[in-house]
Amino acid sequence: MLHSIHMTIAEKPLLGVLFDMDGVLVDSEDLTSAAVQRMYREWYGVEIPQSAFKPYIGAGEDMFIGGPARDYGLIIDLPAAKARAYEFYDELALKTEFVLAGALEYPRICKERGLKIAIASAADLVKVRINLRSLGLDTAFFDVVLTGSDMTRKKPFPDIYLLAAERIGVDPENCLVIEDAVNGIKAGVSAGARCLGITSSFDETVLFGAGASWCAPDLARAPLPWQLAGVSA
After folding, report:
1. Where in the sequence numbering do the catalytic residues fall?
2. Long-range contacts of 221-226, Cβ-Cβ distance < 8 Å, separation of 24 or more
3. CATH second-level architecture of 3-27+99-230?
């Protein structure tokens, strides 16, 4: 069921949809954590608990991998560590079904309706390509695909959503950002977009606190953008 904290809904039509990927289209948090934990275990002989990664969800792999290293006082070769973690992630992705409910249908229906659709993921391009392979899609399905590899400043900075809106030719105020992470919601709000939070990584109280206008369990149970104008608290 959709939940909204707004008593009134902005009148501006939603003409573009900017999708985060991890936690929105694919349930990749456990896979990513497992891949990074294996890298730390095999390369550095350290066991990093999954809880150590939680603060860095949605901020890109530099932070997801580098943040716990800093927290645990480890000095790592970040580019090499990321490359190795992606190798492990690729292995896991090939044998794991982790596509989230509605992940294929929701973007397709938006596209058929004439809305512009974009991927705006803080993950690096190599990971986005692995995830798209699991979805059975390629980059050409979306009007724009932006990744952490394209950005200097990652979420929670608004840069990726501002650029995605610019590239699809839609004002940010007319865009719906779909995110699962606090860092991503903050980025979308800072960009001037309205945000739909998917509660795959954080509960709705946390996402509403970050600035989400609506929350839903997954895209299969989320209203489509043109239906949100009729939703009130």
Report:
1. 20, 22
2. 221/1, 221/2, 221/101, 221/102, 222/2, 222/102, 222/106, 222/178, 222/196, 222/198, 223/2, 224/106, 224/109, 224/110, 224/113, 225/14, 225/17, 225/110, 225/115, 225/176, 226/13, 226/14, 226/113
3. 3-Layer(aba) Sandwich (3.40)
